[in-house]
Design a protein that fits this description.
The chain contains twelve helices and eight strands. It is of the alpha/beta class and about 290 residues long.
Length: about 290
């Protein structure tokens, strides 16, 4: 899955496609349609389709394909690799829809709703598969809005194809589950790239990242090590002594025997506060 075009120009929409297996051009095929990233405020919305011959539909389920929302990121990546490697009978196509495009549509007069953007993306992907030579006979879609209206809309555009629109279709039909996985993997990868670009663009060579960034995360630490000005700390403490953890008894009065057999209390040892030691401050006895 090559998302370099979108990563370089993430203000525009991008299509990403697999090869179309010969068997998908020869035999009747099912096409599943689903999306990822409809709700989040950051990153693109990705629409995806996954297609295979009708006779191979159950093989997708046997491969472990399931609704992407029930899977971990690691499981989704693994299943996408399986889908991608089964290129002798499975194909997929994606439209990565940029946040800028979505915002522009929704601010238009008249406004283009997110539902309409979603419908247009699903329909364009089905048309794209047909143009690529896929012998589409059945289409299954996860609903956006009322399923009856959505199904009638798609059926009118593709009158010779069996169209099924249902709620939770990604959990019911393996081809929709496959589309869900492809879309989610693409969105995760695109968002990871956006995050890295944000970190690089907001980095100060002396002060590091703004407070919104978790400095302790390995991604941030690696960028700081590679891009920031090196800092050497001047340690005045004796390294041998610094590593020795003091005994808790040092904070209490020591009792020693006196010459007459009694005990004598000595005050506890005083230790300089870390406020002074961390800043290498010393006591000034004269002005």
């Amino acid at each position: 899955m090559d998302l370099s075009t979108y990563n370089d120009k993430n203000w525009s929409n991008v299509f990403v496609d697999s090869n179309v297996p010969d068997v998908c051009k020869q035999e009747p095929c099912v096409v599943g349609v689903d999306e990822a990233g409809r709700g989040p405020v950051l990153g693109p919305m990705v629409y995806g389709i996954c297609f295979c011959p009708v006779t191979k539909h159950d093989d997708l389920k046997a491969a472990g394909v399931a609704d992407s929302k029930t899977l971990t990121e690691e499981q989704r990546e693994k299943l996408f690799n399986i889908i991608h490697e089964k290129n002798d009978y499975i194909g997929w196509s994606l439209e990565v829809i940029s946040p800028l495009y979505i915002s522009n549509c929704m601010y238009k007069r008249p406004k283009v709703s997110l539902n309409e953007i979603s419908h247009n993306a699903a329909i364009s992907l089905i048309k794209r598969a047909i143009s690529a030579g896929v012998n589409v006979s059945e289409v299954y879609l996860d609903t956006v809005g009322p399923p009856e209206k959505y199904q009638a809309k798609v059926q009118d555009i593709f009158p010779t194809i069996k169209v099924t629109v249902e709620k939770k279709a990604d959990a019911l039909y393996p081809c929709v589950s496959g589309a869900s996985i492809c879309a989610k993997v693409a969105r995760d990868r695109a968002l990871n790239s956006v995050t890295k670009n944000f970190l690089m663009n907001s980095l100060d060579q002396v002060f590091g990242f703004p407070g919104i960034v978790r400095f302790s995360w390995s991604t941030a630490e690696k960028i700081v090590e590679e891009k920031c000005v090196p800092v050497a700390w001047n340690e005045e403490e004796d390294e041998d002594k610094k590593d020795k953890t003091p005994s808790v008894l040092e904070y209490f009065a020591r009792k020693q025997k006196s010459s007459d057999g009694g005990s004598v209390d000595h005050p506890p040892l005083k230790k300089r506060h870390y406020f002074f030691t961390d800043r290498c401050l010393k006591t000034v006895e004269s002005f």
